[in-house]
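Record filed here:
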Amino acid sequence: MATKRAVGIWNASCVCVRSVLGHSGEIKRNGETRKVLLIDDDDELAEVLRQVLRDAGHSVATVRHGAAALELTQHISPDLILLDLSMPIMDGWSFVAQYRRSAKQGARIVLLTGNQHAPQIAHALQADGYITKPFDMDDLIAMVGRELSVS
């Protein structure tokens, strides 16, 4: 089975339907639904998070590693990046270093990690926040809402 490289990149029809219906969780900037880029190699977790965040009114794209995320950010500008640290090909540490050097940087970065040193790692990477795995979906949605309201 072929692995999908990016899933659900900014589903325009989904955005329009939510706008018409007045989805209560929707956060907009200049009339556009805010974009979340989820970078995680756990396909099952990524699919669940993508659906939960879409149901909360966000546009969501997912990729499996940092290299694919860097390529994608050359074409789109996410408002928030949810980033796993341990991934194949390019890990979260390397992604942050290269993303910060890119001309299109600007998204807030929140780490998704099971590492017990998450606060120190977030500080070292100058991430805007972190949430430790396993996490409660309501906590994740609340953090995404807070981070998007700041950016």
